[in-house]
Each structure stands twice: as structure tokens, then as C-alpha cells.
Amino acid sequence: MKLFVNFLFLISLSMLVNVANAQSAPASSADSTKAYAGSYTFASGSPVQKYVITAEKGEIYGAADDYGKNKLVKQAKVDTYKSTSSYGSIITFVRDATTKAVTGLTMAIQGSELTAKKDNP
């Protein structure tokens, strides 16, 4: 009888651990890339006015003004991507310190760094 009770206890404990792991599992890459999607506006006079990020099948693409979209490749640094465009710009997304929502981006391109704010964070 004691063995049976121990067995039931172990099964219950195992189920609790599985439920806890399922609830704390990280978001899928498709969900995490959606946070970046949207339109970003650069300051007046910037060589780039708008940058549009789209998320497709867990990957993100960036389009500067009307130059067409390019795939952005994830880099080792958090929230950082490299464009496959001929410029090879580095895009780093900026997050609100409290909410962790994406609020803007910086674009390192040809020795310059441009900053844009997300239109609807």
C-alpha cells in the first residue's frame, strides 16, 4: 500500500512539473518576430524616412522607403539583425525598459547610426 501511495505521489509530481514547464516555455520564433513588425519613422532630414518590418513564417524582413524588402538575419546580440541588402546594415530594436515592448530601432549603415521610432508600439 505504501508503495502504491509513493507511486501516485511521483506521478502527481511529474504532472505538476510538466504543467509548469509548459506554462514557462518561451514563445515560438514566429510569435517573437511579430513584436518587431510595424512601421518605423526616422527623424526629418534622415536619408531614410520609413522602415517597414514584416514577419513571415518566423523570419523578418525590412524595407527602407521604396527600395524593396530584404531578409533580416538574427545576430548573436539580443534584438539585433543584419540586413541581406547590399548595404549590410545592422538593425537593433529598442525596447521599453518597463513593458519590454519594441518602441524603435537603430540602423547602423555605412558608418552612420540612424534612429527611428515605431509608429504604433
UniProtKB/TrEMBL annotation:
Keywords: Signal. Residues 1-22 form the signal peptide. The keyword Signal applies. This is DUF3471 domain-containing protein. It comes from Spirosoma validum. The lineage of its organism: Bacteria, Pseudomonadati, Bacteroidota, Cytophagia, Cytophagales.
